[in-house]
Write a structure and sequence with these properties.
Shape of chain A: globular
Structural class of chain B: mainly beta
Oligomer: heterodimer
Structural class of chain A: mainly beta
Largest sheet of chain A: 7 strands, mixed
Helix content of chain A: under 10%
Number of helices of chain A: 0
Shape of chain B: globular
Number of helices of chain B: 0
Radius of gyration of chain B: 14 Å
Largest sheet of chain B: 6 strands, mixed
Mean pLDDT of chain B: 93
Chain lengths: ~110, ~120
C-alpha cells in the first residue's frame, strides 16, 4: 500500500462549490504539506503543518483552508472554488529537517468550471 | 529571498549519453539537497540526496555538491528514453533563524532522451 494517499484522484467541480481534498499517510511523519502545481510555475506551497496543533500558511494560502484531524490526516478545503484554482494538488510528508526529504502523494487533478 | 534556480530546458540528449542537470541556491547555510524526478501528470519521486561536498553515486545517477559555489548537479549516465521527465532540485533552507528549515523547490528542468 502507498505510504501517502490522496482522495479523490480527479475532481471536476463548478465555480462557487466547496470541495475538500484529503490526505492520509502511514509513514509516521509529523510534518505534512499541501502544494499546487501549475504548468511553468513549479510547486507552490499552500499550507503546512508541523503537528496536529501547528498549522502555517504557505506562499499562496488565499482561498484555501486546512484541517489536521490527526497526525496521519491533513485535509485541504476550497471554500468557494474558482476557475484559477484548476491545478494539480499534492500532499507531502516529512520528518523534521534539516536533512529530511519530503515524500509526495499521487496527486489530485482538480478542474473548476 | 530564498531561491533555487534551475534551467527550465528542455534538455535533449541522445540515448546512451550523459545528461547533466544543474541547480544553484541562494542560502549559504543549506545543509541538505535533493533531486526528484517527475513524470508528466505524476507526483515528484525522490531519486537522490546529498549532504556533503563532493560526489554521491547511486547506479546511473551521480549527485555533485559544491557548497562554496552554492551549486548542486545531477548526472545521469547511459541515459534512457525512460529517463525523460522533469527533474526538480530541492534544498532545505533556514527560515527565521533558530534552526527552522523549509524545503524549497526549483521549477525543474525538463529532460528529453532521444532514442
Amino acid at each position: 500500500d502507498a505510504d501517502v494517499t490522496q482522495t479523490p484522484r480527479n475532481r471536476i467541480t463548478k465555480t462557487g462549490k466547496r470541495i475538500m481534498l484529503e490526505c492520509s499517510q502511514t509513514k509516521g511523519h509529523d510534518r505534512m504539506y499541501w502544494y499546487r502545481q501549475d504548468p511553468g510555475l513549479g510547486l507552490r506551497l499552500i499550507y503546512y503543518s508541523f503537528d496536529v496543533k501547528d498549522i502555517n500558511k504557505g506562499e499562496i494560502s488565499d482561498g484555501y483552508s486546512v484541517s489536521r484531524q490527526a497526525q496521519a490526516k491533513f485535509s485541504l478545503s476550497l471554500e468557494s472554488a474558482i476557475p484559477n484554482q484548476t491545478a494539480l494538488y499534492f500532499c507531502a510528508t516529512s520528518s523534521p529537517p534539516p536533512t529530511s526529504p519530503q515524500y509526495f502523494g499521487p496527486g489530485t487533478r482538480l478542474t473548476v468550471l | 529571498q530564498k531561491e533555487v534556480e534551475q534551467n527550465s530546458g528542455p534538455l535533449s540528449v541522445p540515448e546512451g549519453a550523459i545528461a547533466s542537470l544543474n541547480c544553484t541556491y541562494s542560502d549559504r547555510g543549506s545543509q541538505s539537497f535533493f533531486w526528484y524526478r517527475q513524470y508528466s501528470g505524476k507526483s515528484p519521486e525522490l531519486i537522490m540526496f546529498i549532504y556533503s561536498n563532493g560526489d554521491k553515486e547511486d547506479g546511473r545517477f551521480t549527485a555533485q555538491l559544491n557548497k562554496a559555489s552554492q551549486y548542486v548537479s545531477l548526472l545521469i549516465r547511459d541515459s534512457q528514453p525512460s529517463d525523460s521527465a522533469t527533474y526538480l532540485c530541492a534544498v532545505n533552507m533556514e527560515y527565521s533563524g533558530a534552526g527552522s528549515y523549509q524545503l524549497t523547490f526549483g521549477k525543474g528542468t525538463k529532460l528529453s532522451v532521444i532514442p
